[in-house]
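Hi team,

As requested, here is the filled-out complex form for the zinc ion run. I kept the field names the same as last time so the parser does not choke. Let me know if anything looks off before we queue the next batch.

— J.
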Amino acid sequence: MTTTTAFVGLDCVDCGRRHDTDTHGRCDDCDGLLSPAYDLDPAAVQRGVADAADAPLPFPVDERVRAAEGDTPSVETERLADELGVASLVVKDEARNPTGTVYDRGMSVAVTAARAAETEPLALAAAGNAAQSAAAYAGRAELRSYAFVPSRTAFSNKAMVNVHGGEMRVVGGRFDDAAAAVDDQLAADYYSLSAFETPYRHDGAKTLAYELIADYARGRVGPFPDVTAVADAAPLPTPDAVVLPVGTGELLVGLDRGLSELAAADLLADEPTVVAAQPAGCAPIATAVADDTETTPWEGPDTIVGELEIPDPAGGELAVAALRDRPGRAVTVSDDDALESAVTAAQTAVLEVGGAGGVGLAAAWELADEGMFDETSEVVVVNPDAGVKTPDVLRSHLMGQGI
Ligand SMILES: [Zn+2]
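And here is what came back:
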């Protein structure tokens, strides 16, 4: 299949060995995870700022399985910014992706690679949103897909996997049980679309970084009609902090890759602080950062935010390393605060944010209370999915308050 000239191979994150661009699965030598490697010139990165669809990815834009994913709005939330006491609080609203989740960005790239591999079915374990996204993109590519989800997965996700034409197995227990069931229950060969089992989901997520930075800079230095305008505006102003809800680590690793590419091309005036937000009931990445240890599987995970209940995240080590290498930190929040934040966003900013987005907003609140932000701070919070996927969870929070 056609690859971009910038895509030079797949590097093992453990032993460093470079594999050919048509490699699938893990490292032949050490079974480590693979990540796309690029030989980038600054113009390629500038093109990605002008239009994130042109950001450096393994496959050319007109060869990818696409459905207008990305290009999501950055929504100013003046009332929330006032409450936090910051200059601006912008929500990058990934709910506006085709299947209502930020995972559509990476799934577009991963399903493109899967189509070239000519192995069916595509299969993955997912907390919910990625299962729906995989079924949708596989359907568009005329490929069979099989999703393994835990029984607690939101009804909307389960229903839409089937509506998009995907097959599904609901596994008793939690996310890790669903992950184990893929190999236990699928007898035939399959092409994995699980986070980090494919090199392409976390890499595809980096377009989020390109858009975040471009959205922010456009608001301050004007539009970027072409690459020349991006080059002329460089280095681009950046927000002080980007707050990201974290489960598998996929989005954080993607954001880190994107920011690193932009920095290497001398496009960033400053490095924003990247904040990983996790629910207190399942926070293996935040705990590893706080304790300065490796990630260890979380015992007895318990959070209402099913999307973020990932006790043994595949991208845990990479996510923790990313947070340590850049201005970065991690925050945990209670389920109650997350749901309260989600409801407040709905009532003040026309934003339909689910529990995961609520975790991000509550983390911003916590950092403001702690004194990390002041009245000059400019903060971006990523909302990873649509609140309409889990209205029952939001509604039950109100019922708990007698509403
Ligand atoms: Zn290796």
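Two things worth flagging: Residues 95 and 386 are 4 Å apart (CA to CA). The chain has two domains: 74-101+201-400, 102-199.

Thanks,
J.
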